[in-house]
Amino acid sequence: MAADTPDPSEPALERLFYHSERIRFVHWQEFSGSKTAVVLTGFVAVLTFVTGLSNLSQPDVTYDGPLAALIPGEPGVVQFTGVLLAFVLGALVIGLQRRKRLTWYLTLLVLPLVTVLPLTTLRPTDVPLLLSILVALPLLLVNRDAFDQRIQLSSLQIASLSSIVGVVLYGTVGSYALQDQFAGLETWGDSVYYVVVTIATVGYGDITPLTTEAKWFSLSVILFGTGAFTVAIGSLIVPAIEKRMATAFGNMTPSELSLLEDHVLVLGHSDITESLLDELETEADVVVVTRDVDDAAELNEREVNVLTDDPTHEETLHDARIDDASGVVVATRDDANDVLAVLAARTANPEIRIVAAANDRQHVGKLEQVGADEVISPMAIGGRLLGRSILANESAESLFDDVDDT
C-alpha cells in the first residue's frame, strides 16, 4: 500500500499525468476472438464472389499471377470456380456461427483454395481478398477451441450422403470408361458434367449414349442418382423442418431422440428439478419429459432437451428411449402423479435405476412399493439440515456430507 501513496516531493503535475500503472487502451482479445474470425470469413466469402464475378465480366483478363502457368486448361475456369467457392464459404460461415468443428476443418480446406483466385490474375482489386484470407486463416487457427460442437447425423443421413458420393463416382468413372460409346464425352470434366446433368434430370442432349450398353449405363445412373438424391433430401430436409416445428413447441425431434444414449430421464418439471438440472448439466445428457407446454418452451430456450408429453405413459417413455437411459428421476410437487410416473418407468424398463422425491414423508413407502430404487424427502432433509446448522453453528453446506452418510 505504501507504494501506491504519492510522494509529496514530486510536482503536482507529474503525479497527475504520469502513473506507474498501465491501462489497456485496446483489448486485443475482443478483436482476435472467434466472432472476429467468423465475421472475417464471411467478408472473404463476399470478396470472393465480387472478385470472381468482376473477372468473369471483363472481356479480356490477363493472367499474370504466379499460379497462372500451373493451372491446367483454361485459367478462366478458376474465376467461375471462385464464384462457386463463395457460396460454399457462405454456407460454412453459418456452421462456424454454430461452432461446428467439421465446418472449421472444411473452412481451413476451402480458404487456401480461394487464394488460387487472386494468385491467378494478381490484379490490384484482388489484393484485399488475398490479405483477408491471410488474416482469417491465423484467426481460425488461434480460435480452434471455440469450434467444439460436433455435427450429429443419423445412420440414415450418413448412408444417404454416402450413396450420393457413390453414385457420382460410379457415374464419373463408368462414363469415362465408356467414352467411346458416348458422343461429346472426352475428358474427366465431361464425365462429371454428364453425371450431374443426368442426376439432376436436366439432360441438355450435348452428351448422348450411342450404344445399347451406354444407354443401359445412363439408365442406371438416372435410377440410382434420383433415388439417392431423393432419399438424401428427405433425410436432411425433413429433420430440419421437424426441428423448426419442435422448437416452436419446445419438443425434441424424432431424429434427436434416436441419438440419445446413456442419458438421464427427468419425469416432470418443478422447482425441485431446477437444482438437479444444474447438477447434471456437465455430468450427463438430460431429457426432461413434461406435459406443460410453457415449461417445455422455457427449457428449450435454455437448450435443455425436452419431450413434451405425459411422463406417466409408457409410450412416451419409450419415445424418450428409456431402454438406453442410465437412470430416471421423478421429482415434482405432486406425489400422486410421481407414483404413476415411477410405475410407468418401472414397467417400461424393469432394470433401470429410479430415484424419486417425496413431498410428504408418508408417501415414501408408496413410491418404493411401485418401483423406486431410492426415495428422498426434500422436506425431511431440509428440516434436518436446519436443525444441525443451528445446533452445530455451521453452514448448511458443511453438513451435506453428514446427511449423505445417514
Automatic annotation (TrEMBL):
Q: Which domain of life is it from?
A: Archaea
Question: Which parts pass through the membrane?
Answer: 37-56, 76-95, 102-121, 127-146, 158-178, 216-238
Q: What membrane topology was assigned to this protein in its record?
A: Multi-pass membrane protein
A cellular component annotation (GO) from this entry: plasma membrane
Q: InterPro entries from the xrefs?
A: K_chnl_dom, NAD(P)-bd_dom_sf, RCK_N, Trk_Ktr_HKT_K-transport
Ranges for domain RCK N-terminal = 261-377
Please give a single GO biological process term from the UniProt record. potassium ion transport
Compartments (UniProt record): Cell membrane
By its UniProt entry, which Pfam families does this protein fall under? Ion_trans_2, TrkA_N
Keywords in UniProt for this one?
A: Ion channel, Ion transport, Membrane, Transmembrane, Transmembrane helix, Transport
What protein name is recorded for this chain?
Answer: Voltage-gated potassium channel
Q: Which organism is it from?
A: Natronobacterium texcoconense
